[in-house]
């Protein structure tokens, strides 16, 4: 039992062990494998950035910047923020680290992100994202590439069937501003019925009302004008090229004509992979094209597209992965046998065999430990065995036992 005065975790921040940790690791390992299949280079970016990186990228009026960031002054008085997402920091690095020379740059990463939100199922204050981006590519092929990566990842995680890709275009700037005016008119005419948050957004950014989580707004959102009526020929050609590419790649998608993303930097393609298995936290992976972002940070015009996925949400959807099991557990009895076992253990591990040692309690306890670890074999060593240079290898599934010379153990376990 925790003592009343022992330190507690910060609200909304989790520590994981056992199946939950295994799920998390499985999501990350699958992501790393699929990332390589698609040729996205691994990058690392800081957890802490100047606050301006996020304020300028995401937009001052977004929920993330206005309410959710962990921002503070460091000891030299600089304003810094724990990253609430990856994209802005990657765009910052693209500019400050000379990554522009690698354009078009396909990169991926994962790690913690921080948002001061109300913790609930699938929503934490420290959470973790997988992230994939292509910087410096205006072609619809880049959209198809990031969406295909997302689709294959979700399939390989085994959630392909329960998750739907909802796709929209937000058009080019001309499209977006015409649509924005029409949305403003629509929402202004229903102003009194809107949630307080959305009344707030009305004049600052009416597009964001479409992304509202307040039930009161939903019927008003459902009758809002769709973007299709405002798409320029260029924007609609671009979207047609993206959807044709997705069809060719065998990525299934559903049109969601009122889908917008919470951040200001999106243009053209926007998408969310959604499940109904997680209640209100149903979006597991989301992203889109952000052609204006690098420019917003003071760089050259750099079309780009990417997505982020919540590792915790994906972890909740997958089947529990098989726990790690050692191939063998050494069961020594007596001082000389323990010495020999330490040597054998080191040798097996160096040869790539997952092995462990039971070193507590009597023989019975040690054998029980080998069984509960799920080992394939117990390697039993006593004084006699050390004398003869052989061990008793017991197959824990069949109960069969035989003597194996120390230098034949590796071969016996690999067979
Ligand atoms: P939501 O609508 O659920 O708040 P969002 O639009 O704020 O999501 P994004 O900024 O697109 O989310 O982040 C990408 C993904 O990161 C989300 O789809 C989700 O899986 C995950 N995510 C975002 N915020 C959290 C959080 N507080 N806790 C856990 N996962 C999160
Ligand atoms: Mg959010």
Automatic annotation (TrEMBL):
This enzyme's EC code(s): 6.1.1.21
SUPFAM superfamilies the UniProt entry points to: Class II aaRS ABD-related, Class II aaRS and biotin synthetases
PANTHER family per the UniProt record, alphabetical: HISTIDINE--TRNA LIGASE, MITOCHONDRIAL-RELATED, HISTIDYL-TRNA SYNTHETASE
Species, as recorded: Sphingomonas kaistensis
Subcellular location: Cytoplasm
GO molecular function: ATP binding; histidine-tRNA ligase activity
Record Gene3D superfamilies: Anticodon-binding domain, Bira Bifunctional Protein, Domain 2
Enzyme class: ligase
Stated name of the protein: Histidine--tRNA ligase
Family membership noted in the UniProt record: Belongs to the class-II aminoacyl-tRNA synthetase family.
Keyword Zinc-finger annotated: no
Entries under NCBIfam families matching the protein: hisS (TIGR00442)
Oligomeric form and interacting partners: Homodimer.
Aminoacyl-transfer RNA synthetases class-II family profile domain sequence ranges: 27-332
């Amino acid at each position: 039992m925790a003592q009343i005065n022992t330190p507690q975790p910060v609200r909304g921040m989790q520590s994981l062990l056992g199946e939950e940790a295994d799920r998390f690791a499985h999501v990350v390992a699958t992501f790393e494998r699929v990332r390589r299949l698609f040729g996205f280079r691994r990058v690392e970016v800081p957890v802490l950035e100047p606050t301006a990186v996020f304020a300028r990228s995401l937009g001052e009026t977004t929920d993330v910047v206005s309410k959710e960031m962990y921002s503070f002054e460091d000891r030299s008085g600089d304003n810094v923020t724990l990253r609430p997402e990856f994209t802005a920091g990657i765009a910052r690095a693209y500019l400050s680290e000379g990554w522009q020379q690698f354009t078009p740059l396909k990169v991926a990463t994962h790690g913690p992100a921080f948002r001061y939100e109300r913790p609930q199922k699938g929503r934490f204050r420290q959470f973790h994202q997988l992230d994939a981006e292509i910087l410096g590519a205006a072609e619809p092929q880049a959209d198809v590439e990031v969406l295909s990566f997302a689709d294959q990842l979700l399939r390989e995680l085994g959630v392909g069937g329960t998750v739907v890709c909802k796709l929209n275009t937000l058009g080019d700037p001309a499209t977006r501003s015409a649509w924005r005016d029409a949305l403003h008119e629509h929402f202004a005419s229903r102003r009194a019925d809107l949630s307080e948050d959305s009344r707030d957004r009305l004049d600052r950014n009416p597009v964001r009302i479409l992304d509202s989580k307040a039930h009161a707004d939903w019927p008003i959102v459902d009758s809002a004008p769709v973007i299709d009526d405002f798409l320029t020929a260029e924007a609609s050609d671009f979207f047609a090229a993206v959807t044709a590419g997705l069809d060719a790649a065998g990525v299934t998608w559903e049109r969601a004509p009122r889908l917008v993303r919470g951040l200001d930097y999106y243009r053209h393609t926007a998408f969310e992979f959604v499940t109904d298995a997680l209640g209100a936290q149903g979006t597991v992976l989301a992203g889109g094209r952000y052609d204006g972002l690098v420019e917003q940070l003071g760089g050259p015009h750099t079309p780009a597209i990417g997505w982020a996925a919540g590792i915790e949400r994906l972890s909740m959807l997958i089947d529990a992965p098989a726990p790690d099991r050692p191939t063998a557990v050494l069961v020594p009895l007596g001082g000389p046998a323990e010495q020999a076992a330490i040597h054998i253990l080191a040798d097996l591990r160096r040869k790539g065999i997952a092995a462990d040692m039971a070193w507590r309690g009597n023989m019975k306890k040690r054998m029980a430990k080998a069984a509960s670890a799920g080992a394939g074999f117990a390697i039993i060593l006593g004084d006699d065995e050390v004398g003869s240079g052989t061990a008793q290898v017991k197959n824990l599934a069949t109960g069969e036992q035989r003597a194996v010379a120390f230098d034949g153990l590796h071969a016996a376990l690999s067979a």
